[in-house]
């Protein structure tokens, strides 16, 4: 395993590091300490290394145009309606950052942190103590985020936490994939997703508590189809694409919940998770103001597949429970199997 840690940029006078791992097959992942960002997923091709995820040249581009691009997301992925929730009989109000709602951990989420970082063997390790005084969520958290690269071309994202006080924890990664070598959007890519239902969402994208059927609709990916077929079938809705929470159907532990593939170049990314939901977002309203290194900013420039516990679990434990008690530890893992 080839490893490297180098200065990438600065933010608020602090150094931002780029940390890299290269395996025996010349596949490379790199991450940034700012946001514990997944910066590159490079696979070897006849034309040279190809990055399968979107990225920018400098931190200011993330801050100005797309603050969640490839970032680690927490404490809680998705939206909390009006920033309000309960743990047992205790009511909590956290800071809002999308109108009256709290999105992706609020205004001081994981994406805003310049994490302590190191490379050890085949792992990139980020650590930080998350405090109530900074992000307004109850309790403090000791968080370790680890990216592991294996020689069979797997990327493992592990989220480990120790809670000091009761709190909530439902993290994810907001990587945007585009498997095209040239400057194309993602409509030609195919997706298979183990989901027959999705959450019903209100006009502010907050779960209503109801579910909707995906099968035999543009939202359905139970059998493989192109993202373009889905997007073209959704041009009459305001989003003109997908920005939805898919509930994962029961499956064997060794089965991927999602497989994203290129139709001709044999590149694919299979995603494995034991959590019960994945957010699928097809970058419906991205524009030329976003200065990607290898792609033109445009609608459908990338696709995000964010494994998590269904966000309505915060008010309905039939969908899970991501609350933590004082002294409790929690671990989640998302695995990406890359083929090229």
Entry summary:
This protein has three helices and 28 strands.
Structure in words:
With 340 residues, this protein is mainly beta. It has a single domain, classed as Beta-galactosidase, Chain A, domain 5 (Distorted Sandwich). 5% of the residues lie in helices and 42% in strands. It is built from three helices and 28 strands. It has helices at 59-65, 132-135, 227-232, and strands spanning 2-11, 14-22, 28-32, 37-43, 50-51, 72-73, 79-80, 84-87, 90-93, 102-103, 116-120, 123-130, 140-149, 154-164, 167-168, 172-173, 176-177, 190-193, 197-201, 207-213, 225-226, 243-247, 258-261, 268-273, 277-281, 303-308, 323-324, 329-339. The strands form seven sheets. A nine-stranded antiparallel β-sheet has the order 11-12-13-14-28-24-23-18-21. It has a six-stranded antiparallel β-sheet with strand order 17-26-25-22-19-20, with no helix packed on it. The protein has a five-stranded antiparallel β-sheet with strand order 1-2-3-4-5, with no helix packed on it. A hairpin with a 6-residue loop joins strand 23 (258-261) and strand 24 (268-273). The two termini are 19 Å apart. 43% of the residues are buried. The mean pLDDT is 97. One of its GO terms (molecular function) is isomerase activity. It comes from Lapidilactobacillus achengensis. Keywords: Carbohydrate metabolism, Isomerase.
